[in-house]
Amino acid sequence: MIPEIGHYALILALAMALVQAAAAPLGARLRDGGLMALARPAAVAQFVFISAALACLMQAFVVSDFSVVTVADNSHSAKPLLYKFTGTWGNHEGSMLLWIWILAVYGAAVAVFGRNLPPAFRAWVLAVQALIGLGFLVFVLATSNPFLRLDPAPFDGRDLNPLLQDPGLAFHPPLLYLGYVGLSTAFSFAVAALIEGRVNAAWARWVRPWTLLSWCALTAGIALGSWWAYYELGWGGYWFWDPVENASFMPWLMATALLHSSIVAEKRDSLKSWTVLLAILGFSLSLLGTFLVRSGVLTSVHSFASDPARGVYILVFLVIVVGGSLTLYAWRAPGMRAGGSFRPVSREGSLLANNLLLAVGCATVFIGTLYPLVLDAVADQKVSVGPPFFESTFVPLMIPLLLMMAAGPLMAWKRAGPRAVLPRLAISLVVAIAVAVVVGASGGGPWGAVLGMALAGWVAAGVLTELAARVRLFRVPLGESARRVIGLPRAAWAMSIAHLGVAVLVVGTVGASNWAVEREQAMRPGESVALAGYDFELQSIGDVPGPNYIARRGEVRVLRDGEEVALLLPERRHYPVQDTWTTEAAIHTTWISDLYVVVGEDAPGGGTAIRLHHNPLVPWIWIGALAMVAGGVVSLTDRRHRVGAPARRRHSAPVAAAAGAGD
What we know:
alpha+beta, 4-stranded antiparallel sheet, disordered C terminus, globular
């Protein structure tokens, strides 16, 4: 009965989406306050009904109701309770339900918290959100119904993909979707602005908090997925430029560009057309990622589905959404006039350079990801585009971006002469040179490693120099500087924290890419292997039962100078239901480096294959990512970003208020 309630709730949500999609634009066109107001309860009702459907599916997973096809295909009675909950979205049907639920969350949030938006503009935003939701609700009900029944029901299920039975990947999809789907709100704001024909500073301020929220979630989701790949897949790396990894990275690049572009649109009334285009492209790339994961064109540990029929639906929907929005943009964009001019050497100029580098970087990832797929479909030729391509094309583009990251905030708006900027950059230059000398003198490896560490020092010094300039450090009494520190806007702190996070992340990636060492050897209990100044001694190895698996667990004692540093317990797990093996690496971190041990198969000549890694600075990758997210969260607490724009004065009639949209 509960699955039928969930199915019925989805149908009611579809009806609410139809009401919202019809009433909102009609009310906006007719300037009918009643019809425009109807979109708000419709958006909230849609959220309530989809929440009910998601709760019904989750209940079916928790109680192991194997009469539901989705549960029978993706769960098992012996599975731990955590993975029964998270198994709700560990499959195509459930993950799509989570997708539309998050879309409904954003729609309801706009309806509830968007009271300061002009009524007509808000109606158009809700209409676009409803149309997107309508498309995916039809997709779920027609091709991916999570509530289909089995008769007779099997005694037990086929279990969840063992790779997904992990805390990291349990929470990775919700975070990633919160970012992916959140870009739909920026897209809706962009389309609504194009329909209204008015893009101004107020619009840029309205769109920023929604973009910022999506960016934070997407950053956290990508970082969590990278961390999962690091410790779960057992290869010792954190990023492989997998097509599905790229599918989440491309929207992140566009969202990052959009955040910076919206600053110029708000502060200087410039780059308005470009900002709207970024909002459209960001969500378009999110839809592209959805297509790649669910169409069957890719084979990846990240993929949820391999049904070409579903892929065709998403592809058609993608073409309609992207084609329609870009057509509207082509029609309206020529009428957008830039309100402010600026010199190339200015803060606006640096932000524009930032945007162009991010866009070109995104284009290189886009080409490297899709070219093999297009060539395979058109010419039936198989080519492989892997890490060497991306490292030789994308990474060099990030060098000038990092240079601008330190220089840009030190520049004045509109125009900034070199004489004013260069003295401020002197500290960054000195720090960068000092870091390069120290790293090079200590045998820091290839020139790329030296350059990378120097760039990290450049960025960090630039951030601290900018903060010191804001509080006039050493130019006024220290007490006055302290008062200025307390009075700094949270957005200023947010920028500094996020940019410092980038510097830390660069240090981590440079260390992981250049100084990691590994060794693989067949070992028997009692044998020891030396690596990077540590001795790894295999104490024992044997089978250990788990809830729904059997683990081959090793006990590895790590010593340095004869003293025990850690006792590591790597595992290789066998899940009998799906007859699948997974790797559980054992990691000891000092926050400066990781000791990483993996248990492999039995060696042909006897013993067990053990792979050992010493990964310097790898923890800094996730510390940097967390700092970037923290910067975004701090920015969201700035009241100017939360409210978006000051509420307008009430007019005597709703029509007058609606007519003021975008003014």
